[in-house]
Specification:
The chain is mostly helical. The protein has one domain. Helix content is 69%, strand content 0%. Helix 2 (15-34) runs parallel beside helix 7 (112-127), helix 4 (52-73) packs antiparallel against helix 5 and helix 4 (52-73) crosses helix 6. The longest helix has 22 residues, at 52-73. It is elongated. The model is unreliable at 132-141 and 143-156 (pLDDT under 50).
């Protein structure tokens, strides 16, 4: 079965890296709950943040362009590079994994969902700074993670 767009990159990322990214989100939200005057600035940063899909697209297109150029101008053997890159890009589209994913995740590139998750929590802080971070959200991130792993039971 093909994983959902939301889950395919985290499913192919080391648990320690996923936990680090999640902890960083928690830490930033906790920081901004104590510094609400800086929330707008962080929201603007999130608008400019590149998600992992964009980084992979840039990486793949640059390698394909270089391989095609070198294949046309230097040696046809370079044409193997764009062939490999497009195969890996296809694999990423279907499975959520390709060779750059572990590297980019360790570098801190996040999925669109992870970026939006931080944005939603910061917007909640901005709109109601005295409100508890978890109030009004359902279910919690940890509950969602557990429920994502639980198999669905067949209808009776």
């Amino acid at each position: 079965m093909i994983p959902s767009t939301r889950n395919r990159v985290p499913a192919h990322t080391a648990p320690s890296v996923n936990q680090r990214i999640e902890q960083e989100i928690e830490n930033r939200v906790a920081y901004f709950s104590q510094h609400p005057n800086e929330v707008e600035s962080r929201l603007r940063e999130l608008d400019r943040e590149w998600d992992i899909e964009r980084a992979i697209e840039l990486n793949a297109s640059a390698l394909a362009f270089v391989g095609t150029s070198l294949g046309a101008l230097r040696n046809r053997n370079w044409l193997i590079l764009p062939a490999l890159v497009t195969g890996f890009l296809f694999q990423h589209a279907v499975q959520g994994w390709c060779p750059p994913v572990p590297i980019l995740r360790r570098m801190g590139f996040r999925t669109t969902y992870e970026i939006e998750q931080e944005r939603r929590e910061l917007l909640a802080l901005r709109n109601s700074p005295t409100r508890s971070r978890t109030r009004g959200r359902s279910p919690s991130r940890k509950t969602r993670r557990r429920s994502d792993r639980q198999p669905r039971q067949a209808a009776a």
